Amino acid sequence: MPVQPRTTPELRFSLNGAPTAVEVDAGVSLLDLLREHLDLSGTKKGCNQGACGVCTVLVDGRRVLACLTLAVQVEGRDVTTIEGVGTPDEPHDLQRAFIGADGFQCGYCTSGQICSALGMLRELDEGVPSAVSESMGAAPGRSNVEVRERMSGNLCRCGAYNGIADAIESYADTTGSHR
Amino acid sequence: MKPISYAVPASIDEALAAIVDLPGAKFLGGGTNLVDLMREGIETPEVLVDVTRLPLAEITETPAGGLRIGAAVRNTDLAANLAVRQRYPVLAQAVLMGASGQIRNMATVGGNLLQRTRCLYFYDAAAACNKRDLGSGCGAVAGHNRMGAILGASEHCVAVHPSDLAVALVMLDAEVEVASRTGTRRIPIQDFHRLPGESPHLDTTLAADELVTAVTLPAEPLAASSRYRKVRDRASYAFALVSVAAALEVTNGTVSQARVALGGVAHKPWRATTLEQYLAGRPATDEEFAAAARAELAQAVGTPSTEFKIELAVRTITATLRRLRDEGGAA
Amino acid sequence: MTLAPERTARPSAPPEADAGPGRTGPAIGRAVDRVDGLAKTTGTARFSAEYPIPGLTHAVLVHAPIARGRIRSIDVAQAEAHPGVVLVLTHLNAPRLTPPPTRMNPMDLSTMAAGSSIAFLNTDEVHVDGQPVAAVVAETLESAQYAASLVRVDYETITPTADFEAELPTAKAVRSMPVLPPTGGKRGDARAAYTKAPVQVDLSFTTPQHNHNALEPHATTAVWDGKKLTVYEGCQNIDWTQKFLAKRFDVPASDVHVVSKYVGGGFGGKSKVWAATLITCMAAQVAQRPVRLALTREGVYRTVGGRTPTRQRVAIGASRTGQMEALIHQATSRKGRVGGEADQIISCSLDLYDAATILAEQKIVELDLMTNTAMRAPGEAQGSFAVESAVDELAIELGLDPVELRLLNQPVDKSPVHGTRYSHRRLAQALEQGRDLFGWADRPAPGTRDGKDLVGWGVAAAIHPAWEFVANVQLTVDATGSATLACAFHEMGMGTATVVGQMVADCLGVPLERVSALYGDSDLPMGPGAGGSGQTASLAASIEKACQAMRKRLDALASKSGMPDGSDPAEVLTRAGEQSLTVEVGADTGPKAMWGQVRFLSKMVMDSRRWMKAATGAHYCEVRVDADTGELRIRRWLSVFDVGRVVNPKTTHSQLRGGIVMGLGMAMGEETLIDTRTARIMNPSLAEYHVPVHADVPHLDVHTLDDPDPQMPLGILGAGEVGIVGVGAAVANAIRHATGRRVTDLPLTLDRIVG
């Protein structure tokens, strides 16, 4: 039977742990779905073209850009946004680390930086190398240079890069893993 | 963005039927380039046929001792694969020097090969661009073309292909497996992308009804001694001014085999065959590396904005071969 | 010589941790965590496009793809017919607005708020590429976006003039205006002195257009309730936005409510009122619905001004022992035919060095381009690149250490051109302390190689004048002992909301955790604009006054209850049976407001005659240049700043680092590309306009002298802009040291470094 294209498919996925079902136009991005249709404005829009990283969310634990993801593509997936990472009442240790290390100024890139960092540390745990890894064959170690290269998809125009890297490294130090 | 519809085929056959049967259909991979171009009004499909859920995401051994990489393998998974990293380090490096961590988690191998140029005039709907609108002219030839081609360009187009992965594949003599309703075929990667000539609107030799299903890497011991070097305008997350994928075998101080492909210099990944022929059997010295690079670039043509890339290419090739000689590959 | 290894560990001495609630002693000077930290790190801080508004509609702009011409016809039928479209606004159906003020009125600085003189959607003329010619309003964002692509416009076009270099001969002289930053100055006959000087350096420089690229694109939500307008917009000047909109829409300012709680970066780009703000308010008026318009990234590039490009000449004549005999700094910048102004490009040259003669002058070219606007250290950022590069070249010419040359020519106590006294000047200390901390004595020989890289060390000085503006505040203390400061100031990430609490705590003598601030809303007393690095100092002046007045009133109440002066406010109020006490400094309306403005202006004029007040600094860096390719990497960075008193080392150091990072962007990659044939920006995107990424920025070792300026409120000089000044030159000087090559054009891309 030939495949049936749909203009407004029903979309079922897990959003911050909650089963979610919405009808959404096929052309709507995951970012616009979150911000404009579900009032989850913690995920930001900075360029809408995959060049700044402020819309970073986790899909099945992997960091992706919500602006270049069509909402329909997350059918059946597990989506985590900054709202699912931690709350003002129960912040995640990484969110606390960002505050302690002053890893933000205006705060607009912060959600993306935090989601990206969580995905990035998982990639390190899985042994994914980076462009600055000395050897492709060996498992990469965590270092300031590795963290900075791996976080380079997240721009911060306020220039809080030092604080962001410090926050991520101190969080990773205390959690013990992340090589 | 124009309203569209979306389809998830359950099988490759279903996908191949959909692309023919549904008017205005286009395959969707990771979407990192296509979705952006749709938003810019440069790509205007009516239907997106999502091929990322098809069984195309495996990396497997081939009977010939190489690797077969499914077209829907995400870039991160390709770069993380231990067989790729150890046997084809140039490929892992090329992938990791492209885009960002987030984009690598989304982008597929097939989509990477089919990404379109980042030429400023292609991206600007108000500008003349033969690639976007054949016959409208080329705004870039006498405009801002710092990122433009120095090899194989035509008066109609100076765009370059932006992929890093494809440069490594060209150096590795990979083949692209494609399928359509009428069957499958294998395209040598060198013949997959094309030069602009009179028809810059065509990036590849892929037919409209064909789906990239895999890329195969031949068994190649030399590939373990390979590296990717990318020169760009910032330390990360930028397209190449010049990139070099290279492998080198030196026996008793003499080059027994050199393989080089260049990125950022042409409408397609550029295999440096002149250089390779020049170097074979010559002493593995810095001078010979530079002479070989100069021989390759002898045919290069620069504009005032791209002239520097000719010398930059020579120097980057020389430095990459020198490093391969002195330190070996990146594995 | 030892080369420092690339830093992989975190800084050895992070700002001392805040001991948290209950800590006694002064709040000022403590590295307190930001008060908005939880809101920002959990994504719960709502930026201007994120307020849930019932009945909201979405607007999308249609931009002209031509730079000069006229709309012949505009066809909106298809767009109007698209499902969900509420309105297509064009010059044919838009409400007529009162034209923007054409002159600056010192009594009402909101007259400076116009982004340009274009009468958006009130004219068929097109003046700049990307000018909005229509706005589509629809029930959903997707509907508005697609319908906008269906609007068809037919233009009559005129060839634009857009080539800055080609039009340099048409440049007109810029006259310095009192009160505004200097664009010229003279001490003696510099031309003659230069000719006679035994050692001469004469260099030409260019800097390109830059764009702010705050990561939050400008967004406006407009809601009309009868004749009352509420605007949600992240901006740097709530007062200007409120008054300017009131004038344009011909309603009383009190009927315009501006909400601007969180601002996702500004850097100068959100100080003025740009096209989209006006159009959103117009659309909401016509649609009779709330309208939100969040610009696309391209839309920001096309409708908000950027930093002017410059061409500069710096010529320095010196004695053989290094005394500067003549310093000549000539600069040309650009503005739009429809607005913009001259940045103070030469201002650094008036105060960095005590040259025996000085000539500083500016010219300006008018082009068919979007107006330029202030961007972080407007003028100083570009001018310092030129003068601090030339000074470095002079040091090489003289065979003198570049730090020594700078120290040798420091003014003692008076500004060389104007003769005003420095309120205090610590640039020499900054240079010396930086030299010691960086280990400058171990500077390697020029052209030293480390593996494949050439190693270079560079130094540059920084200066940025201190500004103060009017800040009206309201301070309330209640019977629980809580103090609340209310003022419509701006929090774009500078940490203002945090340091305000610290200042109130100490001035009033209450614990920090009992102080909170209300800000970012025009319903609050008028705040200073976030610009000129002046917001914190301006607030400090009024906070000091308010706290003094509050103390007085508390003491009066206390004495009634037989309590001594300085008693705990909670106890005083409780015993007196008062719920709360409120004091106000300044007034927003009426004769008192006028008087406040007069007092502000007269103080400014008096001050400018008596004092030169400025933040200063010294940057030291080590770069690596790949000997094969010219790729540039910053390996090590250290800066020492005098920003007067440091209220919060954590936020202040972050702000200074932010300035340095933006300076690294200028140095290494930022450039807005304009196709001079079409006057069109060709790289309106964060992919092709290269701001620094994480990998470009090493640990930035920032130090502050923390020495209060005696002439500034609480001794604060301001830290927002001095960080960027001189960064480009420090990098260029390091490249010169590494490669022997003097690069005089920004950005310092590898082709320019290799040559």
From TrEMBL, chain A:
Keywords: 2Fe-2S, Iron, Iron-sulfur, Metal-binding, Oxidoreductase. Residues 9-85 form the 2Fe-2S ferredoxin-type domain. Pathway: Alkaloid degradation; nicotine degradation. GO terms for molecular function: 2 iron, 2 sulfur cluster binding; metal ion binding; oxidoreductase activity, acting on the aldehyde or oxo group of donors. InterPro entries: 2Fe-2S-bd, 2Fe-2S-bd_dom_sf, 2Fe-2S_ferredoxin-like_sf, 2Fe-2S_ferredoxin-type, 2Fe2S_fd_BS, Aldehyde_Oxdr_Iron-Sulfur, Beta-grasp_dom_sf. CDD domains: fer2. It comes from the Bacteria. SUPFAM superfamilies: 2Fe-2S ferredoxin-like (SSF54292), CO dehydrogenase ISP C-domain like (SSF47741). This is (2Fe-2S)-binding protein.
UniProtKB/TrEMBL annotation, chain B:
The keyword Chloroplast does not apply. One of its GO terms (molecular function) is oxidoreductase activity. SMART domains: CO_deh_flav_C. Pfam families: CO_deh_flav_C, FAD_binding_5. InterPro entries: CO_DH_flav_C, CO_DH_flav_C_dom_sf, Diverse_Substr_Oxidored, FAD-bd_PCMH, FAD-bd_PCMH-like_sf, FAD-bd_PCMH_sub1, FAD-bd_PCMH_sub2, Mopterin_DH_FAD-bd. The keyword Metal-binding does not apply. Keywords: Oxidoreductase. Residues 1-222 form the FAD-binding PCMH-type domain. This is Xanthine dehydrogenase family protein subunit M. It comes from Pedococcus bigeumensis. The lineage of its organism: Bacteria, Bacillati, Actinomycetota, Actinomycetes, Micrococcales.
TrEMBL record, chain C:
It holds the Pfam family MoCoBD_1. Signal peptide: none annotated. Residues 42-159 form the Aldehyde oxidase/xanthine dehydrogenase a/b hammerhead domain. It comes from the Bacteria. Keywords: Molybdenum, Oxidoreductase. Residues 1-30 are annotated as: Disordered. InterPro entries: Ald_Oxase/Xan_DH_a/b, Ald_Oxase/Xan_DH_a/b_sf, Ald_Oxase/xanthine_DH-like, AldOxase/xan_DH_MoCoBD1, AldOxase/xan_DH_MoCoBD2, AldOxase/xan_DH_Mopterin-bd_sf. One of its GO terms (molecular function) is oxidoreductase activity. This is Xanthine dehydrogenase family protein molybdopterin-binding subunit. It comes from Pedococcus bigeumensis.
